[in-house]
Write a structure and sequence with these properties.
By secondary structure, the protein is α+β, with helices and mostly antiparallel strands. It has one domain: 3-Layer(aba) Sandwich (Aminopeptidase), CATH 3.40.630. The protein contains five helices and five strands, in the order E-H-H-E-E-E-H-E-H-H. A five-stranded mixed sheet has the order 1-2-3-4-5. Strand 2 and strand 3 form a beta hairpin.
């Protein structure tokens, strides 16, 4: 039986383990430096910065979706931004990804969002096909821009 529920503090070790599994799949295993303390502080502290939906299949942790809210100046409404979606390999092809995406779409509608937005690696053809099957539009003309690490330090220092 499949269930999708909000994650709790007790789920943080499982969520972080799946984040590491996702990073391995995305060929960036060494990039994950987040700790359980980071997830607890930023997701379950006084002012949570993200939320997590956990998918369980017959009691086993099968996948997760980590998301937060932004704002679209063009629509004048909140945007649900999906940071990560992951289904463990042994649980794929069981419609778990679909259940998580549907739950996120319902959350977006309940919160008055005009958009539901996420990114996908250009080489991840299974994910691209899945998202397009949901009616998503892949915006290939938009590029992700990021400043982090020492570059962020330099920019902030002026």
């Amino acid at each position: 039986m499949l269930t999708v529920r909000p994650a709790t503090e007790a789920d943080v070790p499982a969520v972080l383990a799946m984040v590491r599994e996702l990073a391995t799949y995305e060929r960036a295993a060494s990039s994950v430096v987040a700790t359980e303390a980071d997830f607890l502080r930023h997701g379950f502290g006084e002012r949570p910065r993200f939320q997590v939906l956990l998918a369980e299949s017959d009691g086993a942790t099968a996948g997760f979706a980590l998301y937060f809210f932004g704002f679209s100046t063009w629509t004048g409404s909140p945007t649900l931004y999906l940071e990560d979606l992951f289904v463990r390999p042994e649980h794929r092809k069981q419609r778990i990804g679909l259940a998580l995406m549907q739950a996120l779409a319902r959350e977006a509608k309940e919160r008055g969002c005009g958009r539901f937005l996420w990114q996908v690696l250009d080489w991840n053809e299974p994910a691209l096909r899945f998202y397009e099957s949901l009616g998503a539009t892949v915006l290939r003309e938009w590029l992700t821009v990021r400043v982090d690490g020492e570059a962020l330090d330099r920019l902030a220092a002026g």
